[in-house]
Amino acid sequence: MSVPRRSPPGAVDGGGRSARIADRPLLDVSFGGSFAAGAAYTAATGETMGGALARRTGAEAIEVDRGVVLHGGADGLTFAPAAPISGGGVQRPFVVEAAFTPTGGQGSLATVLAVGGTVFARYTGDQLQYGFSVLAGGSRTDATRTVAAPAAGAPHVLSLAYEPGGGGATLHAFLDGDQLPDAVSTAGAATWASGAPGSAVGIGTEVNPGGAERGLAGSVRRVRIAARTGPLATANLALQQVGPLATADLALQQVGPLATAGLALQQVGPLTTADLALQPVRSTAHGHVEFEGGVDAAGGYRTAPGEPVAILPGERLTSLVAKASALRPSQRQLDWQRLGQTAFLHFGMNTFTGEEWGTGTEDPELFAPTGLDTDQWARTLRDSGFTLAILVVKHHDGFVLYPSRYTRHGVAASTWRDGTADVLREFTNSMHAHGIAVGVYLSPADENQYHDGVYANGSARTTRTIPTLVPGDDRAARVADGSLPTLLLTADDYGAYMLNQLYEVLTEYGPIDQVWFDGAQGRIPPDRVERYDFASWYALIRSLAPAAVISVTGPDVRWVGNESGVARENEWSVLPTVTGADGAPDYALGFAAPDQGSDAALLAGRDAGATELSWWPAECDVSLHDGWFFHPDQAPKSVARLVEVYHRSVGRNAVLLLNVPPDTDGRIAAADVARLAEWRAELRRLMPTDLARGARVTGDGSAPGAVVDGRDGSDWTTAGPDTGTLTVTLPAATRIERVVLAEDLRHGQQLARAVLEAPDGAGGWSTIATVGTVGSRRIVVLDRPIVTDTVRLRILASRAAVHLDRISLYCAES
Predict the structure, then answer these.
(1) I want to staple 590 with a disulfide (CB 3.0 to 4.6 A). Which of 15, 449, 488, 785 is the partner?
(2) Angle at 384 between CA 65 and CA 708, to 5 degrees
(3) Which Gene Ontology cellular-component terms appear in the entry (predicted)?
(4) Domain that holds residue 47
């Protein structure tokens, strides 16, 4: 799968980049992806990877809250850029940055960053040494500086900016927002070490052949590499918030006002410059709320369901919270959030080549499943509790699973089934027959069209007629008589190609409930990535499939920010967003930010340049295997791991998207079928009968009994914000291990903090669990099971009156 695309303006946390980074990065990853195919890293949405990133030993592992975890010694990551940073003597300026957390007791010369075996930042005892090597007059010398090593166990940001010139070179270093002393050579520029891979970058390791055991112990949360043009400016540092930039040794030629927006990892302080021009910003008057919308009967705000609301410059927190509280999901979003557990099916050319990302030049004859059985897919998914299934119709290689009129790179070009194959048709028929909703994945990236000169060919954006009929088109009569709609949409050549394929899929394959646009670009160089015509693509989908949600790179559903199937502890459906020039929404705070929707996050989003608050619920994607496509040497995840994924996705206000890849026979492998059945059985064992159903319920507010009646659309409503107590009384004392809560999202997401309590035996109450956000569903696993006949929910904080749809109590079967 994998989901990279651009980062939002103004972001300085997580996966975001600031608004005016001077140079396109060669690498910018926050480890939201996975090591899906052995050593190679598969990038994720919001990430840029212009080359190959790989782990060295296989022990390097991604953890959601830490990034990639390294153990020192031979551990580490290496990046080989597709376009070399430089060669021979390093004569091009570049920046390499890392957000990392070291452990204590680093090994000798443990390396944080290294480039070409010559530029480095490494530990020497309790010091951090940085610099570069120069080969001059037949001998190699080092230009280095040393500072106190950053504190162990704490997060840090290190940026190295290499700048040649004047017969020498300078390495500027920045650590946690402070500019460090420059390492300077007047003897010459840095030179690649003998035997070191040209332009290779080490992350948590050295790429010099003699430094293979110089691994960093700790974790790396984000890394960014960019070749530079022009003199160094703060806009070149994307991870730092940098303090005053010393310029004594630099000849800066600033065009336009100097800004700190490009330092994405550093927290930048004031810039010392005589040319700094402060621009006034508009702010609201004290106590005044600016809002477009009406006032409802309760004195709050209202806005059309599914529609975002603007954030104003300098807007106060009270206004932002009121807007967030007022947002509601559209009907399509509401229906989607109720799905809970959905399936991904990665099946295509990569299934037969053993790759995760193809090239677009594969022979279609390679695609030849010997026993395609989409009914087996549907039965397996239905019996395992899945409600919707998404087929990868076109991955980044461009190979399509149906006979498209617009390309020969697909099943129609294979002699399998005599060229009449249509996997998409069989898939949709099977899923609909077994009561499973249908989604389609079409990657915006297309390497086949890139090689054919259609993708990113620089063509003009003009009005295109969709469908664009081809010679002998069997749709001509229906288009002419209006039984098939004609759309006029703006697009370039590749945008029109995508529009025509979307038209085929959405008009010929029955109801489609989800359209999934990946953000990854495959092997296409970062500087050749097309600016997609998302606005036109969205318009076509809304016209032809108005009930379908548009996901990930789309306005209805967002990627959660990792490929581990894990939502945030407190996952809000309303968050600050930005909209790109291509019309696609994006995180204002970067996809990896640990907090997206709290009151603090609303303010942070405003300050990061967010333009809107959006109802944009999270989808958690993860594969049953390590890879997204089937590989015979990969086993399915354990039942325990799958249960954990369910609790941390469905149980945290997100929808789970579990990838179940068919094998080369065209079937779901027997081991996978068995594992899914075991998982389903374990979930049923853990949460069998709802002990609260029909119990006696008392509380303030209105209709407290609605939370146990099992009916959708009935709910307990608190008297107002920050208040509400609900007590569930069972017929007898019972062991309780899990509590499930759900809000009625038709009234927005309101609950921010609550406690669950039980009688303490002395006339009072004891806390058995604390609860943060709830949303569509919150599964609370008690630290210690209790035996009680009474459970009380007490709301401590909410944005408005809470509409609680459900409270369920469970004890696992033995």
Answers:
(1) 15
(2) 80
(3) lysosome
(4) 27-236
